Amino acid sequence: MRILVLGGDGYLGWPTALHLSQCGHQVAVADNFARRQYDFELGVESLVPIESLQTRIAVWKDLTGESIGVYVGDLTDADFTYEMLRDFRPEAVVHFAEQRAAPYSMIDRKHAVYTQVNNVVGTMNLLYAIGEVDRDIHLVKLGTMGEYGTPEIDIEEGWLEIEHKGRTDRVLFPKRPGSFYHLSKVHDSHNIEFTCRIWGLRATDLNQGVVYGQQTAETVLDDRLATRFDYDAVFGTVLNRFVIQAVLGHPLTVYGTGGQRRGIIDIRDTVRCVQLACENPADRGEFRVFNQMTEAMSIQELADTVERCFPGAVEIEHLDNPRVELEEHYYNVVHTRLLDLGLTPHLLSDTLITSLFDVAKRYADRVQPEALRPKVNWRDHASPVQET
Ligand code: NAD
């Protein structure tokens, strides 16, 4: 298949592009390098050094003989987005290209507005481009489990059958997200569902859990193929951050009681799920939702697992929760559709943690310890992350 990976320079987009290429698909990536820019803004960088996109692609070509096309541009630029689709003529578009950190979106008004404009307008341009260039293109869109929040009922895969005053209907599952970033994903989901219903587009919304891990079968072939590994309190996902804290001998920083339960997924399963979604497209007019997670764990359980597996002493520190979220709640998620398509999950295991510890140990001298402490507070309108 011809598959276009938007956000192909990012943490997940790059390994996904490699995996799809390895599976024999013709792949191109697009990116505006916004993610590298956030690092300059925040004064942090990926723990694992990453090469330029062009170098990575050249290394992949040398190793495998496979070419990956590159489009450098911004999805919020409609002309760029249309031209790219007309030029590459994809059968599937995998859309990772959004600002994806909840704390970044909660810094202040400027960052909240940027996040929603970048994400919602970029996706709108893409929907219009698909609508006008080729309605057969299957959109595979990265959403997040955070769209749902933590309702008192089981979280279904995108849709809910309800009975109300004796009548029944199938409605989009109600969403109650916890940040302006997560809200941008909810807005995207509604816009995508609308275009499936009105224009007959086909789309899969992958409501993904928190991703952990840094290596896939393809990225380990050469150091220059490495994907980024973020550990700072703005972009670092929680397990990656705990691993670094353990390696540095710092306490693992659990926000509040740590009773918050979250869906999690190994990066190797992310790339496989996207492959499965592309190779088994939604029907024309169908808005399909998969809950892309493999396990649910509380933040305290994640910290306990790291403590148990780390060969050394680990302390756990409970900080005042900078976020506004329930710390004890019901959480039961249905996630069978990707398993039905053939996903065999990697579960968070001692082995994985050991391999993550090795990555963290190798680059420990690059860690900026002050970047690990949370600075963005959900209750404030302006957090002191920025000078401006
Ligand atoms: P990332 O920031 O590393 O990658 C996103 C890429 O998109 C970056 O390279 C960035 O430069 C690019 N980008 C952003 N806006 C763009 C625009 N307007 N035009 C072109 N390129 C643009 O993030 P990631 O961790 O790889 O996440 C990818 C996707 O998966 C995101 O949509 C995110 O919401 C979703 N997701 C991630 C996680 C996770 O744990 N990392 C969990 C759930 C969902």
TrEMBL record:
Domain NAD-dependent epimerase/dehydratase stretches: 3-291
Gene3D superfamilies associated with the record: NAD(P)-binding Rossmann-like Domain, UDP-galactose 4-epimerase, domain 1
Family designation: Belongs to the NAD(P)-dependent epimerase/dehydratase family.
UniProt name for this protein: NAD-dependent epimerase/dehydratase family protein
